[in-house]
């Protein structure tokens, strides 16, 4: 299984730290050239490898950590996303609700990636918390997952556990997923909730 993180801002780097902590190889890509990402990647760890966007999207599992509307640029890289798992770690805070056509933000993104197995996850924690060791006080920090495709979820649960997190299943994008998706300038109720599951 190969992994990549698309977007190398605060959230992308936080996720890269989670991979590096467990010595899991991960490609990282952004609008910038790979050489521009190299100093930050090296500072995080040797398992983090900057790639071009075209190379990074070849991974089996991709975590989308870009500003909301930039998902469209990523989606254009491949004509078909069949066989890939896409984890949506974006937030649509500040995006006018009418621009989403009344849909949850993750549904808008999912429709841009035809064929992908799509899961919302890793988006509700601030970057500094996401970057920290998820083992806290005898437990593991929680990440929330939601999807309209039940078959897409188990590999993401497995990844979350490999990274040291505990996962909590919220259900579909329109129901449970709405608990972790911003609407306009309003944060959903589970955003920023730093929960720990006891071992």
UniProtKB/TrEMBL annotation:
Family annotation (InterPro entries): NAD(P)-bd_dom_sf (IPR036291), P5C_Rdtase_cat_N (IPR028939), STEAP_metalloreductase (IPR051267)
Residue ranges of every copy of the Pyrroline-5-carboxylate reductase catalytic N-terminal domain listed in the record: 4-91
GO MF term set: cupric reductase (NADH) activity; ferric-chelate reductase (NADPH) activity
PANTHER family assigned to the protein according to its UniProt record, in alphabetical order: DUDULIN-RELATED, F420-DEPENDENT NADP REDUCTASE
Signal peptide: none
GO biological process, any: copper ion import
Record's protein name: NAD(P)-binding domain-containing protein
Pfam family, one: F420_oxidored
Record's keyword terms, sorted: Oxidoreductase
GO cellular component: plasma membrane
């Amino acid at each position: 299984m190969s992994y990549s993180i698309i977007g190398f801002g605060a959230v992308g780097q936080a996720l890269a730290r989670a991979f590096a902590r467990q010595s899991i190889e991960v490609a990282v890509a952004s609008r910038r050239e790979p050489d521009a990402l190299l100093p930050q990647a090296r500072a995080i760890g040797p398992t983090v490898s900057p790639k071009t966007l075209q190379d990074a999207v070849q991974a089996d599992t991709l975590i989308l950590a870009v500003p909301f509307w930039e998902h469209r640029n990523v989606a254009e890289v491949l004509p078909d996303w069949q066989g890939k798992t896409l984890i949506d770690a974006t937030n649509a805070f500040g995006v006018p609700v009418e621009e989403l056509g009344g849909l949850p933000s993750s549904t808008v993104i999912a429709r841009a990636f035809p064929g992908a197995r799509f899961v919302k996850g890793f988006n509700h924690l601030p970057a500094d918390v996401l970057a920290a060791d998820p083992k806290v006080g005898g437990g593991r920090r929680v990440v929330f997952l939601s999807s309209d495709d039940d078959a897409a979820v188990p590999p993401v649960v497995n990844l979350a556990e490999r990274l040291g997190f505990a996962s909590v299943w919220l259900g579909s994008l329109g129901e449970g997923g709405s608990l972790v998706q911003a609407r306009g300038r309003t944060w959903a109720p589970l955003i920023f909730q730093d929960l720990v599951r006891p071992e």
